[in-house]
Design a protein that fits this description.
By secondary structure, the protein is mainly α. A two-stranded antiparallel sheet has the order 1-2. Helix 4 packs across helix 9 and helix 4 crosses helix 13. The chain is globular and about 75 Å long. The mean pLDDT is about 85.
Length: about 325
């Protein structure tokens, strides 16, 4: 009898779930869909639609003027034999692997300083966050080109100390380094996130460590960094994705050419040249999907490796 009663109760509950909506509930449901409509249209028309189109174009020969011609995997096989593409990957990987860690270190160090409760904290946070807002703009890229130019600010400072400067952007050995410095300089966004994470660490841990005689360095290594690993992981993933997509700085600083000896030929810049310079849109679409795959692989590696070094409260 108990089993039958339970079954009948489940049926009644199922019937209650399937009850018809009232007029007011239907009106509320329609209103919710109306508010969601702009977001849904944006996803379909701005994101999903172009992605589906680019996936199709990656298997075609398309020059923007004629109808796409299906060529299968030819664009992807061409990429394996493209020396400039391989050079752009080398430049991009160097940029990501060097500038991102340096940027996160600079952001964390400054966050630790600002976490001490300095006067005018809001002003300092705004000042240090400003480069992140302007770092990807054309104006800052032009300014950077002037700073590291032959007659730029860097060479003027060196000349003041009697040191002969050089064309930092025109020299293949230093051109990429100037863009790395620019990326490190835009540490404001991860710094703010680090600062928020530091504010969430309970002070009782530091008080207990002080009672036990732990030094500030010891507290940093055993308390701050382990409890901050989720924030470090979050910033690392975001900054790697952003660095792989860097374009404006390389385009403006190099004049769209990729710099001397392709030393600043970012992958996105080469993609732009192929798509909008040579009108080889099919090949550019295939490059875009390769970039998506590279970012996905590195993101997956970060998530898989996070279980070994990221610590959560639970």
């Amino acid at each position: 009898m108990s089993v039958l009663s339970e079954l009948s109760g489940l049926k009644r509950a199922k019937g209650a779930v399937k009850r018809k909506l009232t007029a007011a509930e239907k009106k509320e449901e329609r209103a919710s869909f109306a508010f969601l409509a702009p977001w849904i249209l944006g996803i379909v028309l701005i994101t999903a639609g172009p992605m589906a189109a680019s996936l199709y174009l990656s298997f075609t020969n398309y020059n923007l003027l004629q109808a796409p011609e299906w060529i299968g995997l030819e664009n992807f096989t061409r990429m394996m034999e493209d020396p400039r593409l391989m050079k752009s990957l080398q430049v991009t990987f160097s940029f990501v692997f060097i500038s991102v860690p340096l940027q996160l270190i600079a952001a964390l160090m400054l966050a630790l300083v600002l976490d001490k409760g300095l006067r005018g904290m809001g002003f300092y946070r705004s000042v240090y966050y400003l480069p992140s807002l302007l770092g990807g703009s054309v104006a800052i890229a032009v300014l950077w080109r002037q700073i590291f130019g032959t007659q730029g600010l860097v060479n003027q400072v060196l000349a003041f100390f009697g040191v002969q400067g050089q064309g930092w952007i025109s020299d293949p050995s230093t051109a990429l380094g100037t863009l790395m410095i620019l990326n490190v300089w835009t540490f404001g966004a991860p710094m703010i996130i680090f600062l928020a994470g530091l504010r969430q660490i309970p002070t009782m841990y530091y008080e207990a460590a002080s009672v036990d005689g732990a030094s500030k360095l010891r507290q940093l290594v055993t308390i701050t960094l382990p409890l901050l690993t989720p924030i470090i992981f979050f910033n690392l993933v975001l900054q790697i994705i952003g660095a792989f997509q860097s374009f404006t700085q390389a385009f403006v600083v190099s004049g769209g050419t990729g710099g001397p000896a392709d030393s600043t030929m970012f992958y996105t810049l080469y993609l732009y040249q192929k798509g909008f310079g040579n009108f080889d849109m099919g090949y550019a679409s295939a490059m875009a999907w390769l970039l998506l795959g590279i970012i996905a692989v590195f993101t997956l590696i970060n998530f898989m490796a996070s279980k070994f070094w990221v610590f959560y409260d639970d």
